[in-house]
Amino acid sequence: MTNPLYHDIILEHYEFPRNKGACTCPDASSRGANAMCGDDLLVSLRLDGAADHVEEVCWDGHACAIGEASASMMTEAVGGQDRAGARRWVHAVRDLVTGRKDAPAAGLELGDLESLEGIRQYPVRIKCALLAWEALDEALTLAERARATAPDVSPEPATEPATEPATEPATEPALESRG
Question: Quick count: other Cβ atoms within 10 Å of Cβ 81?
Answer without folding.
Answer: 16
